[in-house]
Automatic annotation (TrEMBL):
Protein name: TTLL3 monoglycylase
Coiled coil: 304-331
GO CC list: axoneme; microtubule cytoskeleton
Subcellular location: Cytoplasm, Cytoskeleton, Flagellum axoneme
Keyword entries, A-Z: ATP-binding, Cell projection, Cilium, Coiled coil, Cytoplasm, Cytoskeleton, Flagellum, Ligase, Nucleotide-binding
Gene3D superfamilies, alphabetized: ATP-grasp fold, B domain
Length: 598
């Protein structure tokens, strides 16, 4: 047995097939072993593995040093207890439990013996849940790594918001066509821009409410369902006005909304360039009073009475605004915004709000904490999403970046849908109806569930396509959604790549989250690094295994055989190589003569 293990190890070292896995990835481990790779197992108890530079002596585990860096002159492969995954939607606690089980698996197997024999070898392939746990002196010696450093500009809510604002410098695409408008509340200028946007959206919503009737009742009087809130949830509900729903709004309310929208159209048409036209939100309107009256109309059912001329003005203004504002199609009547903490994942800390003061109060609630923890972004909530059986869903779409310079991106043709637990309703802003994260929805039980909604709250894209065919829109997937998701992913990568740490030999599997609008257009919500591979359903058990298998085909097998199968991956984009601008030997010499004085 020892002889067999030794021969296998010698062959693996010669062929550079030593790997290490950090995190709950049993599929990766099994697939690499099937390819003849030998694992160098990493400690799971916070111990560190030290190796003298230039030496291949047997290593001895030592306790990790606390409160300081690694000792000088030593190469350290030091994974602490499995850290929280910043870009992962799964549960870190469950990751730790699962990985602890993996550390004890095959204890009497030949793999344990082979791992002991290669403990002095630098891995040729590393699949890790967190790059920062690997010593930077050792990292350059590992040929293939599944992570890129410095992904803040792409994989945090704040970073993506900032990166997409710079998109016009990279390509002539308006990010407002695929990314709901977003503001960083920690930046004073952006907070002011959000306040102005909130007011303008309220004015547009008032025009819609003036035209809309719900049966025989005035608009905004939909009954709220009973609360089934889970303890600890934070939900921002509209607050009742002291004026009461029966008292009519002040007479100038609708006229002020019409005036503001007309001024905004002038700004959008650049009519304010050659004259001192004030900003629509800096007019003589009393915005505090305007918003309070708008809340009464939108949330309490206060009746608006308008003349035929005003009705025609509302219709005309909304039609012209629709031509100028690509996001008017996702706005409803209630002006809902979603507030997200930048430093958290898996839906933690996210709240929806319909009042300006609620958003600003929430953003200031952690002012005593460090600036890094306290950063918030506020984003326009998609009030008109496509629903399935009156239930909200989003899409997790995978893609792989194998190089940043030149940018090379691979799109995965399979994905899955995540459903909420309860029917969609803007009258009740609880997470069970609005946040599709698996880690959020597992806290809720569906009350009187629609039997057509899958009990595991997961669908494959094939099931979704079948549903679209039943709606008579079988073409929407290939003609609208997939091209839209590809374009959004590529745009995000282009404007963030200069901020990402590029490293030859590295690659990364990402998970992008999309919401689908009523018109079937996809809206990018966020991009996750190191997306969870833990299956939560029969669908994800199959798809997560497939994407891991195909990723190894793409980054390992394809190197030896470019014609090999890469499964469901397809090349999305490969940037053309840029020739050197200045040929070697070119002399930049300026010649001329001085000007003679008259």
């Amino acid at each position: 047995r020892f002889r067999k293990a030794k021969l296998h190890v010698e062959k693996a070292i010669k062929e550079k097939k030593i790997f290490a896995v950090q995190g709950p990835y049993p599929i990766i481990r099994r697939l690499l072993r099937a390819r003849g790779w030998v694992e160098r197992k990493l400690p799971c108890n916070g111990k560190q593995l030290k190796q003298q530079p230039g030496d291949q002596k047997k290593q001895q585990p030592e306790k990790a040093a606390s409160g300081g860096g690694d000792e000088q002159g030593e190469t350290v492969l030091n994974p602490p207890p499995w850290p929280r995954d910043n870009g992962n939607k799964g549960d870190s606690d469950e990751d730790t439990k699962e990985d602890s089980r993996q550390c004890n698996e095959d204890s009497d197997d030949i793999h344990e013996l082979m791992s002991f024999l290669v403990q002095d070898q630098v891995p040729n392939f590393l699949w890790t849940i967190r790059l920062s746990s690997i010593d930077q002196k050792l990292l350059p010696r590992i040929e293939v790594v599944n992570r890129y450093p410095r992904l803040y500009a792409l994989c945090t809510k704040e970073g993506l918001c900032q990166s997409l604002q710079n998109l016009p410098w990279f390509q002539q695409v308006d990010f407002n066509t695929f990314f709901p408008r977003c503001y960083r509340l920690g930046i004073e200028d952006e907070q002011e821009a959000f306040i102005e946007d909130f007011r303008l959206t309220a004015a547009r919503s008032l025009l819609k409410l003036a035209l809309q009737k719900v049966g025989d009742r005035p608009v905004g009087t939909e009954q709220r369902p009973k609360s089934d809130k889970v303890p600890g949830d934070c939900i921002a509900h509209p607050m009742l006005s002291t004026a009461g729903p029966c008292s009519p709004p002040y007479p100038q309310l609708l006229e002020e909304a019409l005036e503001v929208c007309e001024q905004h159209l002038g700004v959008l048409g650049h009519q304010d360039i050659d004259r001192n036209t004030p900003s629509p939100c800096r007019t003589c309107i009393d915005w505090d009073r305007f918003l309070q009256e708008y809340y009464r109309v939108a949330h309490e059912g206060t009746r608006l009475v308008l003349s035929r001329e005003q009705r025609e003005q509302c219709q005309d203004l909304l039609q012209r605004l629709e031509e100028q504002l690509p996001q008017l199609c996702i706005e409803g009547n209630l002006n809902v915004w979603i507030l997200k903490p930048s430093a958290k994942s898996r839906g933690r800390g996210i709240v929806c709000a319909t009042r300006l003061e609620e958003v600003l109060k929430q953003a200031r609630s952690c002012s005593n904490l460090s600036a890094r923890v306290c950063e918030w972004v506020v984003q326009k909530y998609v009030e008109r999403p496509l629903t399935i059986f009156n239930t909200k869903f989003d899409i997790r779409q995978w893609f792989v970046v194998t190089d940043w310079k030149p940018l090379t991106v691979w799109f995965y043709r399979e994905c899955y849908l995540r459903f909420c637990s309860r029917p969609f309703s803007l009258c009740h802003l609880e997470p069970a109806r609005h946040l599709c994260n698996v880690s959020v929805q597992k806290r809720y039980k569906a009350l009187h569930p629609d039997p057509r909604v899958p009990p595991e709250k997961i669908w494959s894209n094939k099931q979704f396509q079948a549903h679209l065919a039943q709606l008579g829109r079988a073409d929407a997937w290939q003609q609208v959604m997939v091209p839209g998701m590809k374009a959004a992913i590529l745009s995000a990568l282009r404007c963030a790549r200069d901020q990402v740490g590029s490293r030859k030999g590295s690659f990364e599997l990402f998970g992008a989250d999309f919401l689908i609008g009523e018109d079937f257009r996809p809206w990018l919500l966020e991009i996750n690094s190191c997306p969870t591979m833990r299956p939560s359903s029969a669908v994800t058990r199959r798809l997560c295994a497939n994407v891991q298998r195909d990723t190894l085909r793409l980054v390992l097998d394809r190197k030896e055989n470019p014609a090999c199968s890469i499964g469901a991956f397809e090349l999305l984009y490969r940037e053309a190589a840029v020739a050197s601008c200045l040929p070697v030997g070119l002399k930049l010499l300026v010649t001329g003569s001085s000007l003679k004085k008259a």
